[in-house]
Amino acid sequence: MFESIAAAPPDPILGLGETFQKDPRAGKINLTIGVYQDEQGRTCILDTVKKAEARLLASETTKGYLGIDGLKDFARLAGELALGQDYPLERVAAVQTPGGTGALRVAADFLAVHFPNMRVWFSNPTWPNHLGIFQRAGLESKVYPYLSDDKTSLDMTGMIDALEREARAGDAIVLHACCHNPTGIDPTADQWSEIAELTAQRGLLPILDFAYQGFGDGPGEDQVALKHIAAHHREYFVCSSFSKNFGLYSERVGALFGVSPTRDSAERLLSQLKQAIRVNYSNPPRHGAAVVATILGDAGLRAEWLAELAGMRERIHKMRHSFVQGMRAAGCETDFSFLLNQKGMFSYSGLTPMQVDWLKTQKAIYMVGTGRMNVAGMTPDNLPILCSAIARAIAESTVKA
Ligand code: LMR
Fold first, then answer.
1. Whose CA is nearest to atom 9 of ligand 1?
2. Out of 69, 109, 121, 127, which one is annotated catalytic?
3. Among 58, 87, 339, 389, which is least packed by CB within 10 angstroms?
């Protein structure tokens, strides 16, 4: 049977990372996958994670299975972090999931069983895996405009118009709660208010992908979208990831929160989410969630972690400024100052697929084919090389055109 199977195309993000690893060229630069790198280009383990692990090593007594919904302390503390200290605990079905991807997939599986005719709306562009996750679960996907023609700002009118015209009551809409992936362009607070009002008016179910909490302006500040959605909707999903803000990428720590109108409906929702999990991966892994719960549950570690998170956020911010200056210094005609308004790890550079390909083949500089750059992959050392290579890619393609 397997002889007849055609090969699947490589993943547009992770597949590129694999190609990067195999590239033997010295000085290669990786701006592909959304992983934080420090000034030396290393993805280190946070000090608070090491400390929490030391505590766990000394105190853990079992590797027995967790419940289907995971570690209870983790769900409570992660809920407070994502939804705010005063969140309506009794109206939230909270489950621990393998990463933010796991949270999205559990939500998608649940929705596909209970609302098979629902269509799911995604921003154009979005994280490519969004479409795959919901389509594989069996739901139809639709896209709404997000990026203006100039590729540097939000197409608010296009987005609102498309949803007003075509979205049906009972559809779901995936919203990037902060640090939009791949563009880095977030709606303002006023725009979020308008979006939340519209989604409520149209009877859409919001699914907030909260993979980068803390990488915009801070964990609390990044709740702007969520607060507006909460003010207008009685029902919504929040998919949290702890890969980036705790640097726990390979531990696969995430959470799904299903906010419900009543305690009773939250209980029933939880039972259904547990069923979706049981037939998928049975129950989640313990270690990463125990690390997060240890940090969030201890005032000292929590404060230290917030400082580590601020350090990551500020370094990325600094790199945005250095990149814009570096492009000017490299004599590039394109003004990249639009990057300064963008939030989180990513930026849409506006580079064309041909320019991106040229950078890869000629200069061993890797970014996603759409021109998405992981700003967290820029360092003071690689910036001059990066900026002059991008300036050259732009100049050469202009001459050819
Ligand atoms: C990314 O967009 O690079 C990250 O979310 C990692 C991934 O799984 O694609």
1. 13
2. 127
3. 58
